[in-house]
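Case study.
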Amino acid sequence: MNMDLRADLLALLPELTLTAGALVVLLAGVGGGGRRHGGLAVTALASVGLTAIALKIAVDVSEAGRLFFSGMFVLDPFAVFFKVLFLLTAALAPLLSRDYLERHDYRPGEYHSLVLFATVGMMVMASGTNLASIYVGLELMALSTYVLAGYFRREVKSHEAASKYFVLGALSSGVLVYGLSLLFGELGSLDLAAMAAALGGAERTPTLLTGMALLACGFLFKVAAVPFHMWTPDVYEGAPTPITAFLSVGPKAAAFAIFLRVFLGGLEGLTPYWVWLVGGSAALTMIWGNLAALTQDNVKRMLAYSSIAHAGYALLGLLAGSELGVQSVLFYMLVYLVSNLGAFGFVILLESRGYAGETVADYAGLARRQPLAAFGMLVFLLSLGGIPPTAGFMGKLYVFAAAVNAGFVWLVVVAVVMSAVSLYYYLRIAMQMYLREGQEGEGAEVLAAPWTARAIGVCGVFVGIIGVYPAPFAAAARTTAALIGVTLP
Amino acid sequence: MLHDTLLSTLILTPGAVGLVVLLLLPRQADSAARWLGLLASLATLALAALAWSRFDPANPGFQLVEQRPWLPQVGISYSLGMDGIALVLVLLTALLQPLVFISSWISISQHVKGFIASMLLLETGVLGAFLATDLFLFYVFWELMLIPMYFIIGVWGGERRIYAAVKFVLFTLAGSLLMLVGILYLAYLHHAQFGVWSFAYGDMLRLNIPMGAGFWGSPQLLLFAAFALAFAIKVPVWPLHTWLPDAHVEAPTGGSIILAGILLKLGTFGLMRYNRPLFPEAWEAATPLFMVLAVVAIIYGALVAWAQKDIKKLVAYSSVSHMGFIILGLFAGTVASTQGALIQMINHGLSTGALFMLVGVIYDRRHTRLIEDFGGLAKVMPLYTFAFLLATLSSIGLPGLNGFVGEFLILTGAFAEHPLAVALAATGIVLGAIYMLSLVQRVFWNALVHEENRNLTDLTWREALAFAPLALFMVWIGVQPGTFLRLSEAAVRHLIGG
Amino acid sequence: MLDWLVAHVVPIVFYTAAVLVVAGAIGVIWFRNPIHAALSLLATFLAVAGLFVLQHAEFIAAVQIVVYAGGVMVLFLFVMMLVNVRTLPREYQYVRSLLPAAVVTGGFLAAVVAAGLFARSYLAAADPAALTAVEGQTMGNTEAVGWVLYRDFLLPFEVVSLVLLVAMLGAIVMGRKDRREEDAGEEAR
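After joint prediction, the assembly is written out as follows.
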């Protein structure tokens, strides 16, 4: 028993380290009038770094393929890949936020610690093999992000974002739990492996299918897929921009992690039933996300719709379901993470006063004033649009290939047509930057924000490398995928 | 050593220099950017000539082959190779690029760095698309061309440049993304039939692609359509041509030369390289349709060109007509007509490139391109008149110049099987002669009514230098076409026979 | 009569408690005096605890009383006494058309309940013994819950503690005075 607990705690070492880091940041933030922006950001970064080391240790010492905490927790390569992804997000978030928080004069202590708490939640989600541990991880992440969305209390929009996010998020959690309880009632367990085993002989009762459908709806809400996307534009627009950036990648990737784990692991036996639900949602998501983005003048809203559309592309990988499908989703998440954080980084740089720098027109003539910044933004936009040789194209390639391989050619056709549409709105920004001159005094200036610039640089390097030489990254996502699925005890 | 990586060096030289120009040169270093651009394009030309010298025309297969794994898991490799068809198009590309820089030396004065870099990146994309022997790599280079061209039209273009740029991108992208689905489906078929993923061109030729029943039930027809749509938009085949006049008219002179001279050829090249060998039965089935479209394009393009008041628009619509001939030659499918189509691709690049260049010359001086604003220029600008006349005669296919060779081969090659199409296309030649000569008549010979035109300067030495190589090749191909036909003959025979 | 009562004690307690739950819930929104509303809520909490006892879930019943009826309710009352609100003024309702909203919400709720009852008919009745058995041993319900909570569900339990911490943190972040106001206050001193 003691040995068991020791092994359990070792496997949990990364989460424990990050929790400790979050607490240190929280306590350190209380003193000093809460103005030590640099110090706190560095502390947050350091705890993410330590967590990465802890993750390495945990992986090294833990027995491969073993379940911890009475079958609640697993440290398979799938989980590790997502944890690395979350840690990358968590490392970039303080970099993106530091200058922004100082400029807007908000306390950094609680902010950074909430980001770290949300990351802990996401890491628990990625490792969860039981709907109970997955659900509490989800709630930890969700609660932290509700608060973060409303962190800028002097901005009305931020309030609005937080309340909408909270109410709708709580509703979706309720739907999710309801579905979960129905499944529990039918299958007699919340453990994914036990559920999969029970599904083998279980009758496809309406209760079972209702539970599955409700669970799918809850997950689709979390990944912001149509028709459960309504919260996204308002929340993304109102939340502080670094938080929008964080929301658009971290929680989305975490939601995909549990989506894959639950639907391809525990509920694989129900594939013929959920494939239409998820497939229809994927098609609608790609179509509506891209079409709605066309009409947006606010860059944050536009990127919100674009992130909806990207969730649609990633759903194709989930539908494909094979090893290649899972790999493609993982790889896509990585690609999307670096591209989107980079693009949001520029929005942050441009937000000189209040929420200025958000309309498309603010980008007019940027290429003339700041050629390097404009070129960087262009690269990220092209990556989001999926133009070679950027990372975004490679991500799409894998997802589309997996979907074609699984016979979803019609969905891939929808996806590519919508990719063409998406390029129109990405190029709208490029057009403003390069083709319009911009009147004097109009358009936002790029601010001196060295920390943010560093974060953008990191993303840019990744976009370039993955675009030209994606093999090692794709391989990392692949070894991960090989071990997904039902982890029988 | 260079032998192993000659093609890579050829492809990457312009792009690498382009990135250096874009990212490393100081902001106001316009002159340095121009010189670097010119030197890079000349170096590319030298490398292309080197590739020519090492090319064995008797061998129909790919030569100077390079292959490296890129994404081994899904069977994607970085593989290049050059056959006779690719060689002549590479030579055309490498030849036109320095001329574009010379002719744009003065007329592009804003954002010079960006212009040079865009042009060089575009050249990398074009060369890569001609030389790639992996479908995925081909697609990457194909898309790589899109963004530089968007900027070339959008930043340095005319009044409605933004509209034209967006239209260009959306048309091209819509087609090419469907092609991506097609490519993925081919790779999937390879996986299904041989058990491994592959995107290699050679592997694709071995596939057995079922014809099935009906259009929607036939994988081969659908795949053919996915590829053909992308290429037909690029050519452009009537009725997908509507982006072309906008893009041509709004693009700066250098952009128009590259667009007409090279980018349109990628469409016909794609049909030749991919559609015909990969989907032979579908090609058969689609031949009547494309014959009709080609004839419509020839006559429609000529009639619309005739009605134009703007010289540049006239030349743009004449492109639609000329590209129709090339399509006709390709789908007629004999060795002669295909050879003719190929040489006509070169001719069109030379003559239309020259015409756009010369229109640019006069636009730089007068800032108008309306035919009615000119007249009687022959007395004021004799050298210019001579150059324009030469390009015109080349364009309408005067025997002894290059245009005649191509049109003659196409029509004779196609006549046996498609006499009606040839007869109709021949009226297109007559119409072409009418509108081009009437253009020359109105611009150069009518009375000099506009006083502003009295003091126009003739071609400067720089403009003459940019035109001279084109003139040289027009005559060379016209008099001695064998030099070039010989290069591609083995490859074309292989294509037709195989 | 007594026999009848003894034989039917479960349904009698159930329906009494059920009526109390609903009546208490209605009272919460009915009374305009907040204290009355809070006390009405207390009735609901207690009746729910009764329902838990009926289901052999003594531990949850106890928790229901200690945490909700005890802790939460005292906090409510405490705050109300502190801010000293006697009755709520009649405020303009931001939901303009209350009736359709009520019908839609009520209909949705009815549908959910109906679905639950429908689903219930497919399920085997729960075995109360499961609530007290751990690894073949029978013990008290509280002990059994403890076993499950601290052994099988240790990880979710610990994560929930973090959730609570974040909730508290969030309440503080949202509720705290603005730093600029604080600074102004400090300078005034």
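Observations recorded in class. Residues 184-189 of chain C have pLDDT under 50 and may be disordered. The first strand of chain C starts at residue 133 and ends at 134. We will return to this complex in the next lecture.
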